[in-house]
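PROTEIN DESIGN WORKSHEET
SECTION A - STRUCTURE
LENGTH: 411
TOKENS:
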């Protein structure tokens, strides 16, 4: 556990940060958040996993195994987890939820970026298949079905916000529950009732980079990543809504800020030696840095207006993080140096709680309280289904012919 010790009224000075360590007991996650975090979903729900043709999942992965390590890999590991989970039922008549394993983010460019443009066609094709071969979709038109859609803007399937908003969520998913990384309040790409999950970060790789717990946190603010996405945003005004550019312009020469576009081999080790880790939005509000910061006990500084964070009903984000409005980025140094040491200590104690870290990870094999189980907890809390989700014989709600013309093409 890395903890900060400063005099109460002293602002941090370059080179004099945090050389004194105190051994303190972990802070228990009291109240509803802590109780929810430690819930056990087993016995509270049953999930039926559709056996889809391998072209929707396994063959896509065989074509490009890189999908196993990118930040959207939760869709793959969630499938594998459910196949052997005690909540799985082979009898669909007793299922509370139905799951369709469609790997929508596994079509990668040579540089490893996902191309989601065929994802709506894939999803539509899978829904046509399950609605034609099983009776369960048609009973509710998907209201008791869930899909994992971990792309930048979830089921809007585009990495640029304006275009994602323009295309929206495919009409056939309007009644289903979406398990997705994207979460932003009052946004067309966030469907009511969605379960927001963390992006995938490789647990085993992170574990191999752990450093001794008593190592002092000698870095005040840490960030590695893009400040301008020149390839997709040549003018530099749209990417991250200008927030990352503002970080660079205001703090590139500030000795309290260790920020760079470089991605060193010591990246994980560096985070474990930092007090604050910047987690600004990129193309989407979320970032894998959220996971890395929590796992490595670095207080996440969340710069993404209206963000909906992973498992927000279980993880006390307000207690473990610092929230900075995008328009206030220029005051980051004042904001962070003004936080009282006892407040920082409490956040670090909470971050040191193993259950907090476990909830952000998708380990193989699964472990109690991990992200897989938090998804199941989210699904269990939606039960029992309201009777109104079950349609009358012959009743239809969804419009199968609506949506962009391209989405209607066969896949």
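SECTION B - SEQUENCE
RESIDUE ASSIGNMENT:
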């Amino acid at each position: 556990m890395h903890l900060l010790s400063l005099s109460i009224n002293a602002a941090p000075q370059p080179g004099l940060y945090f050389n004194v360590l105190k051994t303190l007991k972990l802070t228990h996650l009291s109240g509803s958040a802590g109780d929810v975090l430690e819930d056990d979903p087993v016995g509270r729900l049953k999930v039926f996993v559709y056996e889809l043709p391998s072209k929707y999942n396994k063959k896509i992965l065989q074509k490009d195994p890189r999908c196993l390590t990118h930040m959207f890999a939760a869709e793959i590991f969630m499938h594998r987890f459910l196949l052997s989970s005690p909540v799985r039922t082979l009898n669909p008549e007793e299922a509370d939820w139905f799951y369709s394993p469609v790997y929508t983010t596994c079509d990668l460019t040579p540089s490893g970026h996902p191309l989601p443009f065929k994802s709506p066609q894939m999803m539509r094709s899978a829904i046509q298949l399950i609605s034609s071969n099983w009776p369960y979709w048609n009973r509710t038109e998907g209201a008791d079905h869930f899909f994992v859609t971990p792309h930048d803007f979830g089921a809007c399937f585009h990495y640029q916000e304006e275009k994602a908003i323009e295309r929206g969520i495919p009409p056939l998913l309007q009644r289903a529950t979406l398990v997705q990384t994207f979460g932003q309040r009052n946004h067309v790409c966030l469907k009511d009732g969605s379960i927001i999950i963390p992006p995938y970060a490789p647990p085993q790789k992170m574990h191999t980079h752990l450093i001794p717990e008593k190592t002092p946190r000698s870095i005040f603010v840490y960030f590695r990543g893009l400040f301008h996405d020149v390839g997709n945003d040549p003018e530099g005004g749209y990417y991250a809504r200008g927030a990352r550019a503002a970080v660079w312009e205001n703090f590139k020469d500030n000795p309290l800020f260790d920020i760079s576009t470089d991605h060193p081999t010591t990246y994980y080790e560096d985070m474990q030696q930092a007090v604050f880790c910047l987690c600004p939005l990129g193309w989407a509000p979320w970032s894998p840095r959220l996971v890395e910061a929590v796992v490595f006990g670095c207080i996440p500084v969340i710069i993404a207006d209206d963000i909906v964070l992973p498992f927000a009903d279980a993880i006390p984000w307000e207690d473990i993080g610092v929230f900075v409005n995008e328009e206030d980025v220029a005051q980051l140094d004042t904001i962070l140096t003004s936080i009282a040491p006892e407040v920082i200590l409490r956040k670090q104690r909470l971050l040191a709680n193993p259950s907090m870290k476990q909830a952000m990870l998708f380990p193989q094999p699964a472990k109690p309280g991990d992200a897989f189980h938090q998804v199941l907890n989210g699904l269990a809390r939606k039960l029992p289904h309201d009777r109104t989700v079950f349609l009358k014989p012959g009743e239809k709600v969804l419009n199968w012919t609506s949506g962009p013309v391209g989405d209607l093409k066969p896949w």
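SECTION C - NOTES
DSSP finds 15 helices and ten strands in the chain.
The CA atoms of residues 278 and 301 lie 5 Å apart.
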